[in-house]
What does this fold into?
Amino acid sequence: MKALFWIGLAVLILGVASLVVPIPRSQREGFRAGGVSVAVETQHAQVLSPIVSVVMIVGGLGTMVAGKAMT
It folds into this structure.
């Protein structure tokens, strides 16, 4: 099953990338009084938890091995 191997490779690459590439997040807060509104938008980047990254890497490797074993 070549598709299973390629899916595993994609998950593996995403797992490795999640260790170093931050995910941007933005939050908007404010208030409105009559016709006037005041808002503040804050932005920060957050890296995914290393545990989630390891699970993705191991899952990708397992899926690749399973895909190779079926051929």
Notes: The mean pLDDT is 90.
